[in-house]
Amino acid sequence: MIEISDLRAGYGSINILWDLSLAIPEGKLTCIIGPNGAGKTTLLRAVMGLVPVTQGRITLNGRALSGTKTWEMAQEGIVMIPEGRLIFRDMTVEENLIMGAFPKKQRKRTRANLERVYGLFPRLLERRTQVAGSLSGGESQMLAMGRGLMAEPKVILLDEPSLGLAPVIVQEIFTILGQLKAEGNTIVLVEQNTHMAVKVADQVHLMQTGRVILSQEADKVDLDQLHDLYFAR
After folding, report:
1. Are residues 58 and 65 in contact, defined by beta-carbon separation less than 8 angstroms?
2. Whole-model pTM above 0.90?
3. Which helix (DSSP H) or strand (DSSP E) does residue 101 occupy?
4. Crossing angle between the packed helical segments 137-149 and 167-182, to the nearest 10 degrees
5. What span, in angstroms and rounded, lies between the C-alpha atoms of 230 and 62?
6. H-helix segments, the chain
7. Which CATH class name applies to 1-76+190-233?
8. Domain chopping of the chain, boundaries
9. pLDDT tens, 123-172?
10. Has residue 181 got a pLDDT over 80?
11. For a FRET experiment, which of 29, 72, 90, 179 has its CA 20 to 30 Å from that of 154?
């Protein structure tokens, strides 16, 4: 579905990604792991048009995404759920979710999509009239994920959903990821919790210093070998 070829991207004169190539297959959960500074978030931002690409191509079903504005990505079927949640803290939970139904085609299905999100995240239904800034970290992550799903995305880019959350909430988040995967969603997961990530993934890519240094099917990953490479042992 998404093909990334010989990609270079970065911030101003600082290049982060170096000749990076990988494929995101349709209907699969692709996990990208690696230490801090490996370029994982930069890769997602490059796909979304938030970081300028200086070399290479990013295509969606064979069509180049270069030149597509970030705010047009949702209409292309791609949403990013960023690290740190970035919810609208002064708006209610339901108002935050409705903001996710931005593409014109999805606006008429706002109520149906709200019901879907509340089915996945019952806690959001309980909190729907609360101001989002009053939510716990786990509830804020659920809200960020639910807001992304309101656009009925074909591709979900999810950046560090477990960051800073209690283990019981992390388990709940990954259970929901498993449900979304089972529904046939295409998911790109950036994650540092290698055990949980490999368990839910179909494909695993390990990044170091802006490059992919290991690509394997998840059921063939040797965690000891992965950790040796992860920590450059």
Report:
1. yes
2. yes
3. none
4. 10
5. 32
6. 40-47, 73-76, 93-99, 104-107, 110-120, 122-126, 137-149, 167-182, 194-200, 223-230
7. alpha beta
8. 1-76+190-233
9. 999 999 999 999 999 999 999 999 999 999 999 999 999 998 999 999 99
10. yes
11. 90
